[in-house]
Every structure is written in C-alpha cells, then in structure tokens.
C-alpha cells in the first residue's frame, strides 16, 4: 500500500481483497482503491474505503490549510475555539484527516479535494486583516464563526471553501444543506463526469417527440457518469443539469423532500415547461441507479411517449 508520503506498507500474505468497496461497487481490474487500516499494526489487512473505475480523473488538489482563530479579548470577544479543537473540527478526532471536515471534502469530491493533515496548522492571532482582491480573482481565505452553524457545521466549512473556487450557489453546502455539491457544482468543479452521451444534450441529440434514456447512479456513488447536461439550443435560456440524489454517503443528511429523487438544476427556479421538456423518473435498475428519460416537445407534453412505453 503506497502511503501519501510515498512510503510502502506490504499487505499480509494470503490476504484476499474484497470484491466490492464500502458502497457496494465492484472493484474491477485497473481500479484505484483507497484503503484504511483497522488498527495500527503495519501488516493488518486493510479494507476498501472506495474505488474508482479507470476512466475517473486522478487529478487531486491537496490543501495546505492555515486556520487563523481570531482573539478580540480586548473587545470582550475572546477566542472561543482552541487550536486543538480546530484540528479536531477539520481533521477528525485522531487528527489524521480521516474524519471531520477533511473526510467530507474527500467524500464530496470523490477524492479530488483533500486536506493535508501533516501541513495543517491552526494559530490564534490578535490583529486585524483586510484583504482587497482585484475583480474576478478567486480567494484563498475562508471566514467562519465559532458557532454550531459555523465551524461546528461541516457543510459551512465546505461552503466557505467552495467560494474560493469561484462558484456561488445557494443550494447544497453553499446554502443550508448538509450535503455534497449538486450536479451543476460538481460539473463546474470538475469533480464528476456526465453520463455517456449526456455532456451536451441539444436539439440534434434530442429531436422533438423522441425520448433519450440514461442510467444515472446517485451522485454519492462516485464521479463517473453521474449527471445529464441539457443544452437547450432550441430556446434562449440556460443549461440544465439533471442528477439523482440519494441520502447516503456524503449526502446522508439529504432531507426527505429531496432524497431518492431526480434533481434538476438551473440558475433560477426551474419550470420544465419553459424548456419544452419532460423528465421521467423510471425504474431503479440497481442499487441507487435510476433509469431517467428526457423528451423535448414542440407544443405540448403529449407529444412525448408515456413513461410506461420507455
């Protein structure tokens, strides 16, 4: 097992790796597998924490994070978080990056955004800082209060982090949800890929009255083939992103009104009638994999086939 620092730990002789990862996905030849030892002995059999098929991008961004805890004792506002507590919040109880906000970073980005636990530093300071950035510049700083909805909420930490990557959306963790980013955000961040043939569903790919069908895995399952990108060139409007969300993994806290459903994202409130589109939620064809159909009509939804015929 090659560690993050480049060192290698051998597996025990005779160890048989599991056939699936923790999410039930098969570990196929060529997959990249992350493993976590259940105890501290160097030859203990590991278990698979997740796997990715070979077509998943392996580009990884590793943050070397400095957490600055402000102390305004002179103003009656002393620091309410210790440096040790900050380490626990961000890296987990063991301080190794396998818990806390770091775990959610890795879950939600499918391993593409991680915190460097070794480089992580938390300090308490007593001075003020003012940052003035030129227009269009992406930031590298995040501001959080020591409250239950601030540094005590992993989604707030992820939300503040994502703002530094140039994307602001008042849904998912950038809003009030304790969940991973939605399909539009995943696409923007480059953390996930569209389903086969679903990167640009325009009028050529979607003729009037004909339905296109896709097998969409819930976004928590992994980065590959997890959304549909509709480019409605038949109307002067915005792109749509369609995905399936299930309350498991990084989306475990997805509320019941939104769990186990097809999600459709646009820059404002979505009315499919504005797009001359019908989106069907079909049958579950596997564990949290949904058959999703889309159809374009010219005048009325009745121009599209009934879902029972698809």
Molecular structure report:
- The protein is of the alpha+beta class and 310 residues long.
- The protein has 3 domains: 1-54, no CATH class; 61-166, no CATH class; 211-309, no CATH class.
- The protein has helices spanning 83-91, 100-108, 154-163, 183-189; strands at residues 32-37, 46-52, 61-63, 66-70, 113-115, 121-125, 211-217, 227-230, 240-245, 261-265, 277-286, 289-296.
- A 3-stranded antiparallel β-sheet has the order 7-12-11, with no helix packed on it.
- A hairpin with an 8-residue loop joins strand 1 (32-37) and strand 2 (46-52).
- Helix 1 (83-91) runs parallel beside helix 2 and helix 2 packs across helix 3 (154-163).
- The N and C termini lie far apart (46 Å).
- The model is unreliable at 36-56 (pLDDT under 50).
Notable traits:
Metalloproteinase, extracellular matrix glycoprotein VMP31; 310 residues; three-stranded antiparallel sheet; 3 domains; Peptidase_M11; 12 strands; 11% helix; alpha+beta
- Which structural class do you get from the secondary structure elements? alpha+beta
The percent range for strand residues is 15-25%
What order do the helices and strands follow?
EEEEHHEEHHEEEEEE
| Radius of gyration using CA atoms only | 22 Å
Low-confidence stretches: 36-56
Shape: globular
Question: Which strand order spans the largest sheet, edge to edge or round the barrel?
Answer: 7-12-11
Number of helices: 4
Distance between the termini: 46 Å
Helix content: 10-25%
Assembly state: single chain
Protein name: Metalloproteinase, extracellular matrix glycoprotein VMP31
InterPro entries: Peptidase_M11
Domain Peptidase M11 gametolysin: 122-271
Organism: Volvox carteri f. nagariensis
């Amino acid at each position: 097992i090659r560690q993050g620092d480049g060192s290698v730990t051998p597996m025990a002789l005779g160890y048989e790796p599991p056939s699936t990862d923790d999410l039930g996905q098969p570990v196929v030849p060529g997959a990249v597998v992350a493993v976590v030892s259940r105890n501290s002995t160097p030859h203990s059999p590991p278990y698979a924490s997740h796997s990715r098929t070979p077509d998943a991008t392996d580009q990884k961004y590793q943050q070397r994070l400095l957490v600055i805890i402000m102390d305004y004792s002179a103003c009656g506002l002393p620091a309410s978080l210790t440096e040790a507590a900050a380490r626990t919040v961000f890296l987990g109880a063991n301080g190794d990056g396998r818990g806390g906000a770091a775990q959610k970073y890795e879950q939600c980005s499918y391993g593409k955004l991680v915190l460097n636990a070794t480089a992580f530093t938390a300090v308490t300071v007593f001075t003020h800082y003012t940052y003035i950035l030129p227009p269009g510049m992406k930031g590298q700083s995040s501001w959080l209060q020591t409250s239950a909805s601030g540094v005590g909420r992993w989604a707030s930490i992820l939300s503040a982090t994502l703002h530094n990557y140039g994307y602001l959306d008042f849904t998912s963790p950038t809003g009030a949800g304790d969940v991973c980013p939605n399909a539009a955000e995943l696409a923007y961040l480059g953390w996930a890929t569209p389903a086969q043939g679903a990167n640009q569903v325009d009028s050529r790919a979607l003729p009037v009255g004909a339905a296109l069908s896709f097998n969409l895995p819930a976004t928590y399952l992994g980065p590959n083939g997890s959304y549909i990108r509709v480019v409605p060139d038949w109307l002067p409007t915005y792109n749509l992103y369609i995905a399936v969300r299930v309350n498991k993994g990084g989306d475990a806290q997805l509320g019941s009104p939104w769990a186990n459903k097809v999600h459709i994202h646009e820059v404002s409130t979505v009315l499919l009638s504005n797009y001359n589109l019908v989106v069907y939620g079909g049958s579950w064809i596997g564990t949290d994999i949904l058959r999703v159909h889309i159809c374009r009509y010219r005048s009325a939804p009745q121009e599209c086939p009934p879902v029972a015929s698809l």
